Amino acid sequence: MPDNHQHTHRGSTSDSDSTRRTFLRATGALGTAGLTGLAGCTALSGGGGGGDSLTIGISVPLSGDFSNLGSIYETAFDAWEQNVEDSGGLDGTSVELRKEDNQSSESQASEIASQFANDEVDYVVNAYSSPLSRAMAPALEDAQIPLITTGSLNYEIHQGFDYMFMFEPPLARKGAGSILSQHDDGKKVAALAVDLGWARLSQKRFVEQVAPDNGLEVVYSATHARETTDFDSFMLRAKQAGAQSFVATNYSHHVVNMVRSMAARNFTPKYVDAQTATAASIGNDLGSLVEGLAAPTMYMQQFDTAGNEEFLETFKSIRSSEEISADYHAALAYGALQTFEGAYANAGSAEGSELQQQMMNSEFETVAGTASFNENGVQDGIPWSLLQWQDTKSKQLVFPEERATGDVTWPKPW
């Protein structure tokens, strides 16, 4: 849990609320509301507690490149909405989620943000992607509507925005560093990232900080285009460089093609760590090749955290299958809405500047852990852990040691 230091105010107009308060909430996620388009929805006054209802705008990729994760986010949003409705609303006030498919497109995300601003919603969540989050920020900043991003790792895009918050903490890759430091036959590492800002930042931290701090040698480092589907040339270069381990920072569809390419080219690293390899679809797509694959995570279902039991029960009652499971993406979605819940309760209002100040200066108990934000609106409370796929379809937490549910499988089976 982070210490109770005071955060620097972004856009502050008052010092009356200088202490950080913790909001503990045991409620869960959302309900069975289907995808609701903006057309035909009643615009909200934006006053929150002063009106008959609260409105939260949701931008979610239900089509396009990120749609395999979009359904996970949508189910988690629905679970929170259902749990809030079942408990009588927030302080007796009903909450409406307005969900729009951003089509995994920056231009569509920007249009959605403008519509949310025009309709004066109280709060906005963008589910997944730093570029999409950045596209939404200007319109919502101008309207002074808090925007919280989930599945977004580019902390640099928050500079210059007072109303933009990043629920997912910057990726540290401490788990990979710790594990590889204990294996002499895995210390020569290849690093590959998609050529986007969030991934380049994460890879840079690994190459320049984590690797040297843990006695690792980065023998190959490269980026690939977002549209890349053929990874053979990258795998051959990594193999020729003598890489014993592989750390990837890209999207889930890249991970699938990348691991298949490794197997096809007889490149068999002893350790493979892929940033987005948490979704159930990864296991289904890779089959036995998923065994031993590691991935950073902020959440596991066995966590003893605020509202986790209700979250899981409702999530599974809405939509649970081998393709859709409550992984850390779902926890991000649920936690982002728990943060609104806490900020609204602390402020006693849904007025944008009051919510913004509460988010800057409070802690929020969520299914992912204790959330808080630094002076740039970037998560500084929830830590990263590391999971590993074992026994084909199960996942074990292998880092940090005090939270581990299993031992590391070494080397990765091929």
From TrEMBL:
SUPFAM superfamilies: Periplasmic binding protein-like I. InterPro entries: BCAA_transport, Leu-bd, Peripla_BP_I, TAT_signal. Residues 54-390 form the Leucine-binding protein domain. Keywords: Signal. This is ABC transporter substrate-binding protein. It comes from Halomarina salina. The keyword Transmembrane helix does not apply. Transmembrane segments: none annotated. It comes from the Archaea. Pfam families: Peripla_BP_6. Residues 84-109 are annotated as: Disordered.
